[in-house]
Amino acid sequence: MTDSESLEKSRIFLELGPRPEEHGRLVRPDARASYPEDVLTRLRAEAAKIIARYPDSRSALLSLLHLVQSEDSCITPAGLDFCSDRLGLSGAEVAAVATFYSMYRREPTGEYFVGVCTNALCAVMGGDAILAALKDHLDVDNGGTTPDGKVTLEHIECNAACDYAPVVMVNWEFYDNQTPESARTLVDSLRTGDTLAPTRGAPLCTFRETARVLAGFPDERPGASAAAGSGGEATLRGLRVAHERGMSAPAVPAAPTAPAQPDQPPADSTKDKAAPAPSATVPPDSTAPPNSAAGKGD
């Protein structure tokens, strides 16, 4: 083998840019670029209620992103501009947050967002098979939406429901212990309007309605709040066994009360003063013998 052939075999190809399975970007030809004045007026009033809950307005960004997502079913340039205008942030700051969290969608989302958990436990319990079955049944790719706009299918990260694996979520409501057959029945019910009730939690609502609740507005549907309270049987089983056996967590000793100190900032964060220089000495090793070299100071 010549040197040039050896070099060719040792080369590694790195593909830069978005992954092939990463659907959509925030700026697209069909994405909404601005809101009509009547929509802006309504959104401004709702945003003011959200922002008023926070001592620092920029802390309201996550909620505002859910608000504009409830308007468009995804994050659009119009939504980015609205959030940056309301909070005094740059477009880059808003976009950085919107593209970091997977719950903010980059393309229009169907009426029902169906997420199949494919993390470790759900995957080995059948999550991968469920996702493959639904892709074939709905004839969509990962992240794709059915032609009728009813269902968007995507694999999702762990939603802390491992005791009910494999789990499918619809608009973030749980459908536990699923199989390929039950998942197909579930999505068929979503498309026909005869929706199956979640295994636990609140009644199912549309994706846009869910985004509005996540923005911080109350879910005013009858029975919605009452149904969203407790964990299920599998989640509480360990607690019940502990109670039956008289087990309890050890008492936590009370922390010693520190003497009152004057209210002043630490030295390294005092306004308009330089941080202290690093120490020139190395603290002794408390685990070394008293007479060893490691235990002596400089």
UniProtKB/TrEMBL annotation:
Its cofactor is [2Fe-2S] cluster. Residues 246-298 are annotated as: Disordered. The keyword Metal-binding applies. Residues 248-261 have a biased composition (Low complexity). Its EC number is 1.6.5.11. GO terms for molecular function: 2 iron, 2 sulfur cluster binding; metal ion binding; NADH dehydrogenase activity. CDD domains: TRX_Fd_NuoE. Pfam families: 2Fe-2S_thioredx. PROSITE patterns: COMPLEX1_24K (PS01099). InterPro entries: NuoE-like, NuoE_dom, NuoE_N, Thioredoxin-like_sf. Keywords: 2Fe-2S, Iron, Iron-sulfur, Metal-binding, Oxidoreductase. PANTHER family: NADH DEHYDROGENASE [UBIQUINONE] FLAVOPROTEIN 2, MITOCHONDRIAL (PTHR10371:SF3), NADH DEHYDROGENASE UBIQUINONE FLAVOPROTEIN 2, MITOCHONDRIAL (PTHR10371). Belongs to the complex I 24 kDa subunit family. This is NADH-quinone oxidoreductase subunit NuoE.
